[in-house]
Specification:
This protein is mainly alpha-helical and about 210 residues long. The chain contains seven helices and five strands; from the N terminus they run βββααβαααβαα.
Length: about 210
């Protein structure tokens, strides 16, 4: 197998969901259908929020960002998964794996934070209705969204750098359908203790 720098593979192999050809066809159909619905639903939500002035409110502003993140998150995983279901070779390059984990971490974290922000928005609207226009002003909402994206970008950089500082020299077969932290840590031939502690501590601090 090819290695990089004598200790890291130049590509990985994704085991996927199943090796059964009949099941792969069924899964391809189901996942493609769900992905199309996801894309159309989120695009429709974004277009509706952007075009309807009645929806230019904090709650829908955050909902639009959540729809955008959900659309991008699905597009980070689903297309590659669909290709792999119809392909015998489920390979992904080292750089492709790094990119997929980096982007997925950004989007997954952003979904969690936007849900938290939307919950806070409803809390202010219900508990402090008189102060709501001031607390959740347009400028405040833009700042909140900027903070969310900056936070998840920083978090993703730390997660990705901690994961891929490890060496992968024993096997390049990932027991998953995309590049994610847990299967990559299990695959590493390096000591993952420090990496796990850093990731756990950082995520507890952020979330």
């Amino acid at each position: 197998m090819d290695k990089r720098n004598g200790s890291t593979f130049s590509e990985f192999i994704l085991q996927g969901l199943t090796d059964n050809p009949n099941m792969q066809l069924v899964l391809f159909t189901v996942i493609l259908f769900v992905y199309i619905i996801t894309v159309l639903g989120n695009l429709g939500m974004i277009i509706l929020i952007c075009t309807k002035t009645q929806l230019h409110k904090p709650m829908y502003y955050f909902l639009g960002n959540l729809s955008f993140v959900d659309l991008c998150c699905a597009s980070t995983i689903a297309p590659k998964m669909l290709i792999d279901l119809l392909s015998e070779s489920k390979r992904i390059s080292y750089s492709g794996c790094v990119t997929q984990l980096f982007v997925f971490a950004i989007l997954a974290d952003a979904e969690c934070l936007f849900l938290a922000v939307m919950a806070y928005d409803r809390y202010v609207a219900i508990c402090n209705p008189l102060l709501y226009p001031t607390v959740m002003s347009k400028k405040a909402c833009q700042k909140i969204v900027s903070i969310v994206y900056f936070t998840v970008l920083l978090d993703s950089m730390i997660q990705t750098s901690c994961t891929f500082r490890l060496s992968f020299c024993s096997s390049n077969i990932i027991n998953h359908f995309f590049c994610d932290e847990p299967p990559l840590l299990m695959l590493s031939c390096s000591d993952t203790y420090i990496t796990e502690v850093v990731l756990f501590t950082w995520n507890c601090t952020i979330f």
